[in-house]
Amino acid sequence: MKCHRNNFASVPLHCQTPVVKPSLSRLREALKHVSAPKRRRNKAFKDFGSNSQTTRIAIADAISTRGGEVAARNRAAIVAAHYLTLNQEEQRRFFSILAEDFGVDRPTVDNLIKELETSEDRSAIERKLRSALEAERELLFRRFLSVENGLAFVVGLRADLLALNDNTFADMDDELRRLLDRWFDAGLLTLSQISWDSPASLLEKLVEYEAVHAVTSWGDLKNRLRSDRRLFAFQHPGLPNDLLIFVEVALVSGLATSVDELLDTSAPIIGSDMADTAIFYSISNCQDGLAGVRLGDFLIKRVVTELSREQPGLKHFATLSPIPGFRRWLENKLETQDLSYIDNLEIKALETALQNPKWTLEEEVVTQLEVTLPKLGAQYLLSEKRGQRAIDPVANFHLSNGARVERIIFGANQQDIAQDRALGMMVNYGYDIPKIEDRHDAYVHEGIIDAHGDVTELLPTQPGV
């Protein structure tokens, strides 16, 4: 159901939406006009998706070189057009056919590996082996890109694949991710600054895609675009009038300690001569099909460069970030009684906070947890790892980008979602431009997490250590 949009300022913020994610719904609408001869759509493909043999023949035909490359691309366009009509179960069947019948030719690969061991011309065999290791379906994916709106189609195709959450499609997902990685290389992206004067369609997308701090009203959105705020987004020529990822920035004096204050529509505007710090307080990925494609790290570094040029008075660049996995980790530690380094009063306060959403109204609990939670937050962020990487996904993202853990903040976010994730705690990650590369290398290659001394001092002392 569409909302009537006459006067943009008076548009209701939340409309009744279909079950399909809005971005994918819009994508399908844009792709309805994929170029494919109607005669062939209606006749040979009437049971495409529901009949495995029909689907298999159509895919094989689109991969075939019969009639030359132009004819093959037209056949791929027909397959793309019919794919858009499939429900999720038919999509699963489509991907299953691709996985089972159009993968790597394993007998050929095995024979080439044997030849490689005895051949005097290893280079020739290696060339053949590289070609044989490419799944047959990868040619179909590349031909999809040549269809009108083909890049958007492939992004949506991968989003559908990921939504199935089926590990048997892992190889296919990797193929699509690598293909999209090339098409969304940082050199092909455009950095755009979004303002209140940007087209209404882009502003609506910001509301739709915001994944960290939901936009509650048009006044809220306007507040995020005022003179001491910045919003930058990556766009791609192949996805015109859409966004890939965006970051919201507050220009402030000193490190921000409360996201509630940053989002307060009544907060005074800070003059550009007073701001010495840029706080990245929200990063939202807009396209599910680009999961795993490196966009965020490039975006932050590009924005740091842009802001440094625009406002030389900015001396510090940092985030105000959530700690999404903390509560789950804490609950597991309490359940397994693996918190021997804190006393019974602290444990009781923690249990109260986890069981009572209104715990912030209990003065004794707040007083206790103001000390205890940052200690546990430091333990979680600095010491809990999967291999050499921090287990918290946001921490891993920023540390991989060369950031440092600057400060853990108690009560930084009073929104319900922050209570659900980390009992209201947030963290500042600092980006010190001259040290970004060294910190990146130390973390990625050696697992070393750089942190301010005030944070490392929070680490609890465990008995016997």
Order of helices and strands: HHHHHHHHHHEHHEEHEHEHHHEEHEHEHH
Please describe the biggest sheet, giving its number of strands, its sense, and whether it closes into a barrel.
Answer: 7 strands, mixed
As an assembly, this protein is single chain
* Strand fraction: 5-15%
Shape descriptor reads: globular
Q: Architecture of the largest domain, CATH level 2?
A: Up-down Bundle
How many separate helices?
Answer: 21
* CATH third-tier fold name of the largest domain: Butyryl-CoA Dehydrogenase, subunit A, domain 3
Structural class: alpha+beta
Mean pLDDT level: 88
Total of domains: 3
Helix content: 40-55%
> Quick one: CATH superfamily of the largest domain?
Malonyl-CoA decarboxylase, oligemerization domain
Textual characterization of the structure:
This protein is an alpha+beta fold and 465 residues long. The chain has three domains: 22-183, Butyryl-CoA Dehydrogenase, subunit A, domain 3 (Up-down Bundle), CATH 1.20.140.90; 189-319, Malonyl-CoA decarboxylase, catalytic domain (Aminopeptidase, 3-Layer(aba) Sandwich), CATH 3.40.630; 326-456, Malonyl-CoA decarboxylase, catalytic domain (Aminopeptidase, 3-Layer(aba) Sandwich), CATH 3.40.630. 49% of the residues lie in helices and 10% in strands. The protein is built from 21 helices and nine strands. It has helices at 22-30, 38-43, 52-63, 69-83, 88-101, 106-118, 122-132, 137-145, 150-164, 170-183, 200-209, 218-223, 259-262, 296-310, 326-335, 344-355, 363-383, 393-400, 416-422, 436-446, 453-456, and strands spanning 190-193, 229-235, 245-252, 277-285, 316-319, 385-386, 389-390, 404-409, 426-431. The strands form two sheets. The protein has a seven-stranded mixed sheet with strand order 1-2-3-4-5-9-8. Strands 6-7 form a two-stranded antiparallel sheet. Helix 3 packs across helix 5. The radius of gyration is 26 Å and the shape is globular. The N and C termini lie far apart (61 Å).
